[in-house]
Design goal:
51% helix, 11 helices, alpha/beta
Length: 201
């Protein structure tokens, strides 16, 4: 098995399933390699897997996970303003450890100067839409906490947003990344396995 594939799978399995010492060794390796990355941004279209990856890294790196959707959405119908979101972000960005899950290109210029690693997930549009629909059906009306903090709604406007994300919001984010500080590491990946392949090569 490819070493990073094994690592990726081990991170998702319990210590009981794989053995305490094996998982502990893998987690130690991850922490050594990721030691220089204590402030991380996870970007990508809805349905790209940002929330799952954020949860995974936050758990094993012992970093606080910040979900921008949870900050931005008051309920399924109402949001705060961009200025209010920036106000909420300022004290978070001032700290030394975090993983921030979410695009919000209007806040990227404030976040990037404090960031050490950006992970940009790019998946096919139909895959992203299918995942969003599946997530909606999984959490709708069940009182369960949506992992990304997204509102418990879905409509054609949101589907259109996902479809046009690459040439609209995605392009805006890419332009900001292209002008980011030269020492900022940026990983563009098609899935979680690709992220680990690039991190551990």
């Amino acid at each position: 098995m490819h070493p990073t594939k094994k690592l990726h799978e081990l991170l998702q399995l319990s210590t009981q399933a794989r053995g305490f010492h094996e998982v502990k060794s893998i987690k130690r390796r991850l922490m050594l390699i990721m030691a220089d990355y204590q402030r991380i941004l996870i970007l990508g279209t809805p349905g790209a897997g940002k929330s799952t990856l954020t949860t995974q890294l936050a758990k094993h790196m012992h970093l606080p996970a910040v979900r921008l959707d949870q900050l931005f959405w008051v309920d399924d119908q109402h949001t705060i303003t961009t200025d209010e979101l920036l106000e909420k972000l300022q004290p978070i960005l001032a700290t030394d450890e975090w993983i921030i899950d979410g695009n919000y290109a209007s806040t990227l210029s404030q976040r990037l100067p404090r960031t050490q690693l950006v992970i940009l997930l790019k998946v096919p549009r139909l895959v992203a839409i299918w995942r969003v629909i599946k997530r909606y059906l999984t959490y709708r009306g069940k009182g369960a906490s949506n992992p990304g903090g997204n509102p418990d709604t879905i409509d054609w406007e949101f589907i259109s947003y996902i479809w046009h994300f690459p040439e609209r919001q995605g392009r805006e984010a890419q332009q900001l990344l292209d002008n980011a500080p030269p020492d900022l590491r940026i990983i563009t990946a098609k899935n979680h396995q690709d992220v680990f392949d690039q991190l551990f090569k």
